[in-house]
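Two proteins, back to back. First:
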Amino acid sequence: MTELESILADLPNLAIAVSGGVDSMTLAHAAHRAGLPGLQVVHALSPAVPAEATVRVRDHATRFGWRLTEVDAGEFADPEYRANPVNRCYFCKTNLYARIAHVTAGPIASGANLDDLGDYRPGLIAAAEHRVRHPFVEAGMDKAAVRALARDFDLADISELPAQPCLSSRVETGIAISARDLAFVARMERALAPHVPQGTDLRCRVTHGGIVVEAPEPDDAMRHIADELCAGERRRFLGFRPYRRGAAFLHGRA
């Protein structure tokens, strides 16, 4: 038995928070393969969750026989979250784990891995407050190990997925989170995705100055798409730049 299997074996009636990304999806597969009694996969619905992620979770639940529960993430009812402070993720995860606690009496787990511990992740504070387990961290697994496990499970559709944090992560700190902005971000990224190599990091950023798209080597077609979408909503388009992880996170802003 592997270290991960041993950890999961001690978590009957586990509820796994599954966002639709490679980490949480792979954890759900590992737990399902381990035959955990009472296992529940919980997916949160929110304007901040890309529609493609929800489709992916539902598809895997149907194909692999997961017991799937969908909940309203609830963060948009929280004014502290909508204000988009530097610790926005804390309020997001606080609401999420509270909602999951309403549908399970068992332990809750996330797909966090060792690499996540090196970033500023206020969501991990909320996880600790709700006693959320992180089986990948406990098993000493980083992102590369999670991807390797997904490949071992023959999950080609998720093993090479680029990082895809919630849509609110595209909005610069201090700009209030709105469903309208998030819908625009999703529309822009969906329109541009076919024009970049598969697996490439692509971000539409809502900044204090206007809209910025992070993508590799934009061509004329991409520039035309971005110009048209911004013009259609009377948004100021500032142009393209290379992808920068966490570029919307501004230190020093409340």
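And the second protein:
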Amino acid sequence: MKFSFLRRYCIALALLGGFLGLSQAATPRTVLVLGDSLSAEYGLPRGSGWVALLEQRLAAEKQAVRVVNASISGETTFGGRSRLAALLAQHQPTHVIIELGGNDALRGLALDATRANLEWMTQQSKKAGARVLLLGMQMPPNYGADYGRRFAGLFQQVARSEKVALLPFFLKGVADIPDAQRLFQSDRIHPTSEAQPLMLDNVWPELKKIL
């Protein structure tokens, strides 16, 4: 009698565990990418940018993850901030990748404002139940060592204060190599198609940790 009860109890637990496992596996996940031209396929054939390659990699790994690319060329952190609430409500992402800030620096916007916008977007994403990955950027040496250091530090400060994931330099292995020019379009600002897999390889390990 005791054996029969124990056996039925174990079977019930196994069935429940299987049900929960299936439920979790079936739970849809959505990654929202909020970025600028580096994520919007500027100057590239459609479907060749790192975000499109991310979709392909997730599919190859049979991960049920939907990717929404809400990136716009020329976007600043202020622009991203103004659009974020509507994007969160519409797509209800489980993960948000924020790739913004480069255009703020190129336009000479105040660093304090950039940091405040990044913090706000991170906080709102977290309040919506999403896990956040910040993609850090660095400026060329001609902007000055002090400015470059302070700009790069913004991303570290936000990630640390908000306790979110950080990729310190999105263009590592692309913009910081001796022959970097070959990986950039003629404007020397936007990476080529050849650089996109390298950019994804930078993002992937950090994203995979929080998926």
